[in-house]
Each structure stands twice: as C-alpha cells, then as structure tokens.
Amino acid sequence: MYNWLPDKSTLKRPRYRSLMEVIENAIEDGALQPGERLPTHRELSYQLGLSVQTVSRAYSRLVEAGHVVGEVGRGSFVRGIANDNALPFPAVRAGTQVLDLALIKPIVGDLQKDALRTALRRIAQDLPYEVLSSFRASTIANRHVPIVDHWLMRCGVSRHGRDVIPTNGNTSAMTVALMSVAHSGDLIVTESMGHHTLPALCRSLGMRLRGIEMDDEGILPDALEEICKNEAVKALFIVPRAGPLSCVMGRERRSEIVRVARKYDIAILENDAWGPLSAEATLPPLAALAPERCYYFTSLTKCLMPGLRVGFLAVPQAMASTVRERHMVTNWMVTPLMYEIATQWISDGTADALCDWQRVALRERGDIAQDVLSPNGVRVTRAGLQAWLPCADIGSEARLVERSRDAGILVAPGSTFSIGPLASKPGIRIALGVEDTTVLREALHVVRKIDAENRER
Questions:
Q1: Where is the HTH gntR-type domain (predicted)?
Q2: Can you give the CATH number for the domain in which 58 is found?
C-alpha cells in the first residue's frame, strides 16, 4: 500500500530523523503527492517496528519543516507545494470596486506625494555622485551614519555595541537576520499567531518553526522556557509592538522574555516594523534590554510611505561581519536612491513630520473602528495600523472573510497568521490605513453587519 516505506533495517539512529529523511525524499521524488494522507502514527510504528513516540516526533518535525500538515480528527497529509508560492491573502477582486483592508499600509495622500516630489527635485538639483556610481555597500551606508542613528534613537535603539546595516525594507532585514543566526534543521520559535511570511521563509531555508502559547501581551515566558528545557532553540522571532492580534508586550513581560533568552542562550529577532509610529514607542525594545543577542529591524514602509522600502538592521558587533556577508549574497546593498530619499527626510525633519501626521490620522481611524465594531469585541492598538475582530470559530472566520469579499471588502483571515502546532485564534485582521474616513466607516459597518449575522447562525 505504501511503496515508499523503507526496510526498517535501513533506519539509522536517531530513528525519528532517519524516518523524516525517508518521507522528505518520498515527497521530493513524487512517491508521496501533495494532499496524500500519511499512515497513522500507530500504523506506521507497527509496520516499521518503531515506537509510537518515535513516529510522532518525526511527524511533528515534518510539520515544523512545512512538509506535512496535521488536521485534527483526519490525520497527517503531505503539504501542497503550491501553497509556498501563494500570497498570504491575495487581493482577489470580486468586482470592479474593491477596498483592500487586508494588507497593512500607512495612509498615503497629498502630503506624502508633495514630500516625495520635493525630495526628488532636491536630489535632481544636487545629485550625489555615489548614488549613481557606487557599487559598494559601505560607501552608501557610511554617508549617513548620524542620520540613521537619530532615527533609531526615536525607536529606542542606540548604536552603542552594534552595527547597523541599511536594507531594502523589513522583509530583507528579517531574511538576513534569520540566515545569520540559524541553519537548516535549527528550531525557531515565535508567537502562535505571528508574522505571515515567516513560515514560508523558514521552509525555504530548511528551518523548523514552532508557535508558542500567547496571551494579550504576546508570548508567555513560561511557555518559552518549557520549550527551551526540552529542545535546542536557536532563535526567538518576536513582534512585541504590533502582532496580528493587536497585542502589545508590557515592560515586565519584555524583561521576562530576555531572562529566558539569556538563560538558554537563544538569539532574539525583534521585528519592529512600525518603528516610532507606535503609540507604545516609550516601551523599551528588547534590543535595549539585551543588546548582546538581539537582532533588531525596523523600516520606513509602515510608518511613512509604502513605496519607501528602506529598513535598518541593528546587530551585535560580534556578528556584524556575518550579517553583512548574508546581506551581500541576498541583496548586495540597499537601493541608493531610496536610501538617499529616506536619509534626506530624516535629516530635514520630513520623516518626523510625516510620522507624527500618520499617528494622528491613524488614531482617528482607530477611534472609528472602536466606535463601529466595539459591540463585536474588536481590539484596536492606539495609533495603530490595524484592528483585530475575533470570531467564534474557524467556520465563522471563513464565512466572514468570504462574505466581506463578496461585498467588495478584503480582510485578512486569522488562519493566515497561525503558526503550529497550536490551534489558530479565529478572527480577522482589518487594516485601517484608508485615506477617506467616510469610506472606512461605511466598510466597517458592512463588516459589522456580516459579523452580527454570523453570530446569529
């Protein structure tokens, strides 16, 4: 029945790892097809003469590596490769008029357009030679060190004891950071409802990923410590200010997370995509509490303008050469023209002004979301880019997403952010970066009505 099964005598110790390799090879060779159901733990243990615990461990590692998915009550299935290439929540257009509240982005209007026009005119009138000709990352990065330091200080991060690498946004920074601290087969842990591109990134790098139990402040320190006691954890990927559930990690919780990371010597990858936009920016980043092990990254994309894909990766000096090498082989260097615009804006105060304006505008939209959706249990971060609307179960979530799309409104399903093995928290994430507040209010009323009908089912 299972022609891919090995002769049990060929399984080497540790046998769970050997079994993993057999199944991975069967998937790669086509002997196991996407969607095909694997034998039950007990059935496979009987056929191969292994303990149920050994098979369970192999299956768990395959789930973490992204090769297999487990479904409660149904079993374990080979994961569809096509899922790796799909967007987490593609903008499938249900009609000619679609309001995208799925993708997080700041508000863009005339203020941002005028600021960009001014910057481009200024650069055109006095074009730095390096922007045109430089092919060395250090030449570009070293032009504006004090300016970048000013922005990072607004985020609560000092350069002392660190190197800072300019990147093409946060996605580039998180990839480089992950490649710098871990290798294929290493275990990365993160929030059980976390960053939506992290699973695909870990799969592509051959790393294992596991979600950790969380509450309204994010990861539970005891849950993190329990995993570290039982397995070698390489790094913690964490979003302390703005995860999909609109959780904000408090000062005491941050200190507890750092304590566990130091105790078990794990690296911390801190994703602070919103930077100084967050109203909770007065809370110290984990990078300030554990500079010796924290890889901190932020960008201007979420707090100033989507098209300004410039980020900053601050790393311990001891790891700087490794990080620069990883950045070079994946990105070479930050795009000089974008970097010139970004540093010009920081230098002349435009970035501060745009960020302050964005914070006020988003607070207004957050108040609208709170006003319209508060009866439905919405959670809105102060001056944040998003709101989280919980659902009763996965079925309710799917219906809410589908019916909202039919009404011309795209929202992000909570299952997009679920990172196993823990169950997903049902709900939808709603992006609030809409220029027209009237349009936003009307859309939220539509979502509220659909959600109310869902709850009455």
A1: 13-81
A2: 1.10.10.10
